[in-house]
Amino acid sequence: MAQDEKKLDGKIKGMDFGLLMRLWPFIRPYAGLLSISLLLVFLVAGLDVLVPFMTQKAIDQYIMEQAGSRPFIVFGAFFFAVIFLSFVMDFFQALLMEYSGQKIVLGLRTGLFSHMIDLPVSYFDGHSSGRLVSRVTSDIENMNEMFTGMLLFLFKDLVLMIGIMAAMLWMDAALALAVFAVVPLVAAGIAVFSTLSRTAFRTIRKKVAEINHSFSESISGIKVIQTTDSADAFLSKFKKINGEHYQAGMRQIKIFALFMPMIGFLSTVCVAIIIYYGSVRIMGNEISLGIAVAFISYTKMFFRPVRDLSEKFNMLQSSLASAERIVKVLNLAPVEDRADTGSGPLNVIETLTFKDICFSYHDDEPVLKEISFSMDKGESIGIVGHTGSGKSSVINLVSGFYRPVSGTILINGMDYKRFSLEKIRKRIALVMQDPMLFTGSVRENITLPDRDVGDELLEQALAQANCSFLQERYSGLDTVIHEGGRPLSSGEKQLVCIARAFAFDPDLIIFDEATSYMDSQSEKQVHDAMKKLMKNRLSIVIAHRLSTVKPCDRILLFDNGRIKESGTSEELLAMEGDYFKLIQKEKIGFFQ
Ligand SMILES: Nc1ncnc2c1ncn2[C@@H]1O[C@H](COP(=O)(O)OP(=O)(O)O)[C@@H](O)[C@H]1O
Ligand SMILES: [Mg+2]
Questions:
Q1: What is the DSSP string of 261-327?
Q2: What's the pLDDT tens digit per position in 531-588?
């Protein structure tokens, strides 16, 4: 985070246009409104600068010269009109800006979500969900601040300050220059302040992230913490981070507490200069009293944005860092944009072939080495092997989450790349180790992508998947699933996942350790459902319990990314190799 911001330090001055260009599609629909808002900023600043100028006229031409009441009333009405107009324009300017900002952020958040959900699975290997969540929440919120206000407010402040300085020079250059002598001090103050507060600001943000992390980690690990009686240790760790956050916050407050009175002091110095030098010039008849009064108003007006600017500068900086993080995600190519997918028609998967497939997640660590196998409709392949031997990686390739480094995957005898991933995935069902159920009803969970599946088909899928428990113990298809799949047990969750696989009548069905978290009763149920699902389809069954793969037509024993043994269960047993040893071990059981 801090590094992101450091990189940005240089960019803020030149304003990164690449960043803006990438966000432009989200801004464009509201560019017209924003331009009107910008125009109003100019007008409001102009009117604001006009007010002290009119005060001067009022004093010099009407009060000092006692011009009588009629012109004075006309002038007063005009004065009031200017102030009222400024108020109205200010209102519409703020309204337009807030409206556009909120709309931009609305679109941006949806855009980010829809982009993220299409990213290749490999992207999520290197990014924790916590950090991605903060993209859609706090980063977008920061952007919100940037659009709804900061940029335009900063701009408004600058316009106002320049306008004020111009008006002062125009009224009386000598007095203006005398007041401007303070400006370098103000500039130096701002520079020191923004450097100091930026450091404090960054520390605070870092500590907030640490607090979040510590909190969520403790919650997800609550059972471990309580059973190991380590609550105190976690509490003291949390206290330490929390204390550091407090100290960074206090540092920030001290910096502000020092800066704000300092700016106040400088503003008073300016007023003193005006009073002293102004009276000298009034007495020399070089300027009028009205001008001196106007100068005092201008000085006050000038110092207000100075305070704002320095505060907003920090916010702008963190917004830009957020913008950059968001753009980074938006710049990643989604799955279907990859150049290596074709658009050949695919109605049914009848054969699947791996030909000399080599694969690695990282360049230098081969995970699969020259894997070759082939299967036809109605056939099942079981894959066994130690944890880390590459079994799930085979599935990652079949599902198109990753691409092989070399070798080819063939579907119906044709290169896999000829088909779009969408078409291939439509024909595949994947039942994984952790049954994934989303919050919502069981019906919604089964009909995920296609809401039109009729109840009859659904009931059929549930029956085939041995889901009668849903009727018996819960409320059938309308059972409400909460976070983490509650209230179903893990065996029940898996059966619902199998029903989901049934509902779409896939050609290729994959089970990746689908029964590994289960008691033998649920396992039996799942096995039974699996058997039904495998009929007349291609199926790949990964398991470390050999009883699960035993009925498969062919079994591949993986060892360190290679197929070490292959054949039917009987053939492998006869070889008396690794498979044989594994079976022996499993027979002896856990307590050998
Ligand atoms: N997303 C990933 N990124 C990097 N390495 C991975 C990833 N997934 C698995 N691996 C590594 O690849 C090897 C094979 O993993 P995997 O196919 O999951 O094995 P299995 O399913 O047989 O337990 C392991 O060494 C594992 O650490
Ligand atoms: Mg695995």
A1: HHHHHHHHHHHHHHHHHHHHHHHTTSS-HHHHHHHHHHHHHHHHHHHHHHHHHHHHHHHHHHHHHHH
A2: 888 888 999 999 877 888 888 999 999 999 999 999 998 898 898 888 888 888 877 6
CATH no., domain 2-335: 1.20.1560.10
Chain-centroid distance, C-alpha 452: 32
Give nearest CA residue, ligand 1 atom 16: 390
Give tens-digit pLDDT for 92-127. Answer: 988 998 898 889 889 999 999 998 888 888 888 777
What spacing in Å lies between the alpha carbon of 361 and ligand 1's midpoint? 8
Please report, to the nearest 10 degrees, the dihedral formed by the alpha carbons of residues 330, 336, 341, 346 taken in order: 180
Q: Measuring from atom 1 of ligand 1, which residue has the nearest CA?
A: 125
Kindly state the tokens that stand for 265: 């002091």
pTM: 0.72
Q: Which CATH architecture has domain 380-391+425-588?
A: 3-Layer(aba) Sandwich (3.40)
For the chain, what are the domain ranges? 2-335, 380-391+425-588
Give distance in angstroms: CA of 171 to centre of ligand 1.
75
Q: Which amino acid is at 244?
A: E
Q: Decide if 2-335 and 380-391+425-588 have a common fold.
A: no
